């Protein structure tokens, strides 16, 4: 019994182990099946992902070779993107010939390659240009620009600052001198107004009034005074003769009356009349003194007019003083700039740049010398004091004249005015002589003031001669460039080429939603002063642009180098032949693509005029920097400015002749480097290139030259493919457990399916 129980117990234990083993084995098989499918799915996913990425790259590998060769740009070309993509996917699919075991039975059920980001987009085009130029442009800049222009930048910048100060001073100087000229004119007019009425009645020099003259026609003050005693004597004599006749006649009449009363016959004849002996002389004298008196009375009205002129003179002097104060401020600012530069240590050493070092020394001396042009308050106070003294002298003269006129008015019938006439006459003559000698046309006070003004104006005539000469030669240099306009006679087909280019440009702007409302002006100023100012201002701009490029303004630098390297620009020697009438101006944009990109005119002549005008302006600014050094020997700051301007104009004109003859220009007298036309294009592109309009013009030229539409030249591909493989074990269980979600795909029947996407671009 005991054995049977033990046997049954062992059987039960063996049965339990078998069931457990079966359950464990089933779980192991299930786990291994899932792991195998998981491994197959993982391998499938990796292969599918790599296939999609490879397909995307394969699509991009079909680029337009001509576009790359000519412009260094990548864009899709060749076969259809979908076909290339699918072909690559199928090429990466494992194949089986039926005799070998295939772990992955990949099947591609859907695929698509979506192209985007066309080259017409400025953002896309700019990135490709930057990629193309990122190694070349810095080398070009270092070798061809910075090494050539080193030492010139600071000199030209300082020249601009110095010329600005000198020009400010010159303009203020001209205003001040115009005010002083007005003051001198008013002072002279005031003196003339008072002197003119006296010219005919008060002689100069003074005549002695001691003595007498025979009474006759009195035309001057000395006549009035010196003839007065004789006039009194003759008038008295005639009056006595008249009185004697009157007494004799009255006695005869009395005798006649008495005879008649006595009844006696009266036969005595009446006394004969005795006519006056000096009636004519007396009459002429009296008429003469009235005329002299009338002239003297005129002086009061002249005095009021004179004072009005003197008031205007004082106002002009005050205006000149205010301008002189402005000049003092300009001079102080110039001195402060020099001191700030010295304190900051900005000055170059001779080792760094001989040009910059010499320029700084010359400019500092110039800025200090402009202080000498300031006259100072004391000078103007003296001038105003002279005007006041002239007014007071005029008042004294007028008072003496009025007093004398009153006395002269009492002469007819008088007898005791000789002493008064002599006294007042001497006083009037003295006042008149003092006024004439001090404030008349050749008066010492006026002449002294004029001489003092002319003394510091001693260089004005020479300066104006230099300015006129520089202006004439500037106009001649301008006319040579402006004459390009006369050669713009495009053939109909050339006009159509420009019209097509303009349409492509407008279309690209619109496609990029960019506007063309910004203002671009590249006209050269006709007046030399304005042209010089603009040239120096522009030079500051392109020098700053070059400096910015050197320290990291990457986009504009790369873009400018790309334009110069990939697009055609005009040949200066060909332009010289055009100007000489030996060749016709090619009206097509194909020979001046860089100029069109930079300036955007739809005429060949306009683009050339803009480019060569800017070159002339650049040369004028550099030569102006030299001219300030070369002309320092003139001493007077404004004369230095005029001489430097003439030097700059002549040298810049010679530079243009050299450019047109050989396409070379010496950078500077102080920097032994040769520059070319393309160097200046680089500078101008750095200065005002890189705008949306410039990229649009660049695109328009490339479209016209290649015949391609950049709106359909794609640079970005997004590839997408859907593939599946068979699940060997328990596909239903996988779907039920939801494991496909974690695997990144879905289970459809017995197949696991997943979709992959890869994006790639040329830049």
Can you put this structure into words, describing what you see?
With 763 residues, the chain is α+β, with helices and mostly antiparallel strands. The protein folds into three domains: 2-114 and 719-761, no CATH class; 126-149 and 459-485 and 522-706, no CATH class; 174-332 and 376-456, no CATH class. It has helices spanning 2-61, 65-71, 81-91, 122-133, 136-149, 152-199, 221-262, 279-344, 354-369, 377-409, 418-439, 444-456, 460-482, 492-511, 528-550, 554-566, 572-579, 593-599, 604-630, 637-662, 677-688, 692-706, 731-737, 739-743; strands at residues 107-118, 665-668, 671-675, 714-726, 746-748, 751-761.
Distance between the termini: 92 Å
Spatial shape: rod-shaped
Query: How many domain regions?
Result: 3
What share of the residues lie within helices? 55-70%
Give the low-confidence spans: 347-352
Secondary structure tally: strands: 6
Describe the oligomeric state of these chains in a short phrase: single chain
Radius of gyration (Å) = 54 Å
What fraction of the residues are assigned to beta strands by DSSP?
5-15%
Strand order of the largest sheet: 1-4-6-5
What letter string, H or E per element, gives the SSE order? Answer: HHHEHHHHHHHHHHHHHHHHHEEHHEHHEE
- Global mean pLDDT: 82
Q: Classify the secondary structure makeup into a structural class.
A: alpha+beta
Number of continuous helical runs:
24
- Sheet of most strands: 4 strands, antiparallel
